[in-house]
Amino acid sequence: MQQASESPVLVGVEALTKIYRTREGTEVEALSPVTLDVRRGELISLIGPSGCGKSTLLRLLAGLEKPSGGQIRWRDGAPSRGTDIGFVFQEPVLLPWLSIQDNVRFPLDVFSIAKSEANERAASMLALVGLKDFGKALPKELSGGMRQRASIARALVYHPRLVLMDEPFGALDLLTRDRMNDELLRIKTETAATIIFVTHSIDEAVYLSDRVAVMSPRPGRISALHTLDFGGARNESVKDSPDFHRWLSVLRRELK
Predict the structure, then answer these.
(1) What pTM did the predictor assign?
(2) Phi and psi (nearest 5°) for 32?
């Protein structure tokens, strides 16, 4: 099987910058030139101090904001109607009056997918994230971890080429977060999704990532980029390996 590090580039970020103008008229440089190639099938984590532009970079990739300079190049054509990009936020942001299945199906309704196909795809995604028996439940009836699983299912339901995840597990307790990390690795394996993952947890970044990009304090730039290879499938045993702890030390040192 082809490794992510050997896979073709899906999207290239080339000298991307972002400058915000405050109400007082002053300029704040959020991103200094950022250059990064994201390869098909990889999970790449962005880590760095608060305010360094990690979330800004995701929003630029998603088309939610326009860059001040540089460009984003999709190697096989620009995103179509937004269906090529999935976004998972820190909070699930589910519509409280809709069932879980209807929440997952919602993007397909927006894109006018036939209802029979939309229902089938939503049910398939719910099964993938372990919520097969909770399609009729309302969001308030699920735990935080289950709601976030539904959010991931919604982001994957239209088979996006790129999934952007902005601290999706940051609000969860440690045990639930660990379970969600394992779930994400399983889902990535089963879907071959390409994922950019923002986190403040170095442990999480090392455990999940094919590569880790370290960002500098604002204005954010990529100060280091590392490929992590533990020589096999990721599971809890990886956390006991010398390589895992070596990477924790390397990244902690670089963040300081």
Answers:
(1) 0.91
(2) -85, 170
